[in-house]
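Lab manual, section 2.4: Encoding a predicted structure.

Procedure: take the sequence of the chain (696 residues), apply the prediction step described in section 2.3, and record the output as structure tokens. A sample record is shown.
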Amino acid sequence: MGKFVVKYRKFILLLAVILIIPALIGMFSTKVNYDMLNYLPNSMETVIGQEKLMEEFHKGAFSMIITEGLSSNAEANLETELKKVEHVDTVLGLGTIENAGLPAEFLPDNIYNTFHKGNESLIAVFFDTSSSAEETINAIKEIRRVVDGKAYVSGMSAFTTDLRELSGNEELFYIIIAVALALIVMLLLLDNWLAPILFLVSIGVMILYNLGTNIFLGEISYITKALSAILQLAVTMDYSIFLWHSYREHLATNNNPDHAMEHAIKATLSSVFGSSATTVAGFIALCFMTFTLGIDLGIVMAKGVILGVIGSVTILPALILTFDKPLRKLDHKSILPDFTKLSSKIVKIFPAFVVIFVAIIPPFLYGYQKTNDNVYYTISDSLPSDMPFAIANQKLSENFGLQNVHMILSDAHLDIDSALNMTNDLKNIAGVKSVLNLESVIGDQIPAEILPTEILDILKSENYELTLVISEYKTATPEIAEQINSINQTIKKHDTSALLVGESSLTQDMINLTSVDFQVVNTISIVAIFIIIAIVTKSISLPFILIAVIESAIFINLGLCHFTGTRLSFITPICISTIQLGATVDYAILMTTRYNRERLSGLNKHDAAKISIKTSLPSIIVSGAVLFAATIGVAIYSQADMISSMCMLMARGAIISIFVVPTFLPSLLILADPLIIRTTLGMKKLTKGTNSWKNL
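Recorded output:
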């Protein structure tokens, strides 16, 4: 392959440029999903209920609008204007009820008080499209224009609108910040002024290809869109750095750039197999999540790593050979020192590092588990509290005591007694403020037929009756979980076919799924990476050691969140565990491979460890520093907590790994050397004369 790339380098660069065009088309044509609840499996009862709500009542999204200081006429006029907004299916407020010929005084007190308090009133707005659909987003924007500061728009659709706007404003700056900081780090730590720019050009092209090929997925999540480019840059930079170092090494002994590059490509392909395979395995593990956001992120990132490897042995070599002359003129001394003394010091006191390793595991494992147990699931909490939707939600909570609206679909032909009993039982559930349906409005004394058609159509279809349950409990709390359970038991008692839908019930399903997903993904990623390490190192014992070291870094990283009082979004620990494991195990493989090589060359375990630290540490520092630089700026800049916290943990994880791998790993390798020799293919010949366990 090396000869092919060298020979056809001009063609490769020309093809790379041409392919950018369809990549850009694909990138801009790929839809972005901003609704996390859309990643729930279609087989779930809540999702089925949501579909039925759309089919029967043409209602896909729901918002509450809070008005202040409006007269009855003004509120009625506002509701009339809201009905004119495209994709608004239903508007339900006191003005609508009165205009339909049903005096507000006719309503039970608990329902009237739900919609009216002091000089404030509520207007419920239903949309005929889903909460994250383009049509709904546009409708929310139009509603905000119509209310013109006279009212506040709450709900998931309002959140999605604000999230989309925030993401659209920030995403470009994510790339700019990540590239700028990564470039600065590489200019300082590498030995050439031009090489880092060529690295970024090569990786940038492959990022475009990755984003462009997402069109075959149909759509990606906003998290995937925001993070994939940054992660691909940070994770695949290793391959570029390795090719560069290999090329320079061969160039020093053979001044022919073409021949040097052929050998460098060959060396890179064989060396990055294990490291790239572990990274891909980490991302592929996300695809086993029942919550399908994992599939979304996993496929895109696995694809990005593979493309990164391809780019490092095709586009990058072609660029380096093309710019050979200026590259030779722009060498400089790296600021990295010689690590001979440091490596000797680490080896000399290695028992201390073994003790530290054993000592830190229990407390940080405890913190790690506590962090996972204390995540938040309320997606709206991931955005700043001064955003329009957040202000509206706050008013809804403080002024009306309204946190959630459950929607129940029950049999439209349920007898009146059963319907009334179900309504009364729902009212008695803890945390339920009021229940709005036909029975709650008219009771058993007044026939439904007297209701205006406009009101009747809102609450009843051919097959289902719609019940709105107003809750004072916040989404994703133990109280709402218990309430959802009670509501389900109640409605099933009276109608076995009844369905409970709404944001809180969907969120509860997400909680139940992801709590299991975390364990599944973590297990699969560890097992897959274990197998790959075993194949690469040809050892049974080394995978245990390497994974133990990397997992300790993960425990420290996530455990610190508990000890510092930092709450994470539910998706962050899942992603960080797999990403950090897959990305930083490269450091461990690099060091272990060198250790084994030096042991086989005849060096004792202490000298082998010294050399492995000395030679691996520059690459580990450069790679870790690039990962840190590419993520820390985004973490500081982003106002979206899901993005900010993930980037902050990736940045911190890189720094932790830079310290953990060069200290804990060689110490454990020295300690376990007799076992490694006996369980690693090709090393048993070292058994004779091997230091005993006592001779440490």
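Check your result against the sample. The mean pLDDT is 86.
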